[in-house]
Amino acid sequence: MPPSNRRPARPAPELNEAAQLADQLQQAGYTKRDIARIINRDPSLVSQFYTKHKGAAFVPALRQVLTAVQSGEITDPAELADVAAPHITRRTTTSGSRARVRTKAVLITPTGSGTGRVGAQAIASGSARLRPLIAEAARQNLKLAFTVRLGKSGYVHPSGSNTDSPGIRRGVVQRTDHSEERSYGSATTGGFDATDFARRVDATGGDVTAAVHQWLVESSRIHSDAHITHLEVRTWRPR
Question: Of 14, 42, 56, 119, which alpha carbon lies 20 to 30 A from 169's?
Fold first, then answer.
């Protein structure tokens, strides 16, 4: 029998630790996009954990995130980003200086779609990383909506009330820690002018948390002593 001309298959390359941790997070139900959001990087970098063996700088953060997920203490990507942040260190150049990090310049897609989320740690500092998204939405004359999470007792109206937005329970998410998420505005029901909202943010010195809190109090949706624990902002181009 003539010898086969086929070359033996190459063994699959061994995954580095960053890829192994990313695999475990995906097995727990998170996507590569979720992982990228947690470490505040582009999703393409997570793919490079597998293809180019990158990600060593993110291993300490990913370990902490995986521990939090496996313990069941934290599951929300925005909260996990707060867990990861203190453990992410910048690369250094050969001279010892901090390496520059390439980030996406485009906050909003050509269709006007943009999303920003912050958890408890960022909330305390005014949700500063949401300000550029709101400013760019205002520049493009987009619409925006937001979702807030706070303790149930902080809301003035019960969930599903027609007095509160959205007036139907599908925009409300109940949490096991007695907090509740409510969405205000959407492309279907209508949103807010980003330019008006950007003015509110500017009036609070750039504090997005304070601007959202002020609007909710002024519109009689939450009590003045209510504390926002999570915040998400979404944008779109009006038709």
Answer: 119
Tokens of 134: 């709101």
Q: What is the pLDDT of residues 39-84, one digit of tens each?
A: 988 788 898 899 988 899 999 999 999 998 988 878 888 888 888 8
CA–CA gap between residue 43 and residue 34 (Å, rounded): 8
The Cα–Cα gap between 171 and 133 comes to 23
| Total length of the chain | 239
Q: What is the pLDDT of residues 123-155, one digit of tens each?
A: 877 888 899 999 999 999 999 999 999 999 999
What value does the CA radius of gyration of the chain take, rounded to a whole number of Å?
Answer: 22
Which 3 state secondary structure label does DSSP give 2?
coil
CB distance 187 to 143 below 8 Å: yes
| 3-state DSSP assignment of residue 193 | strand
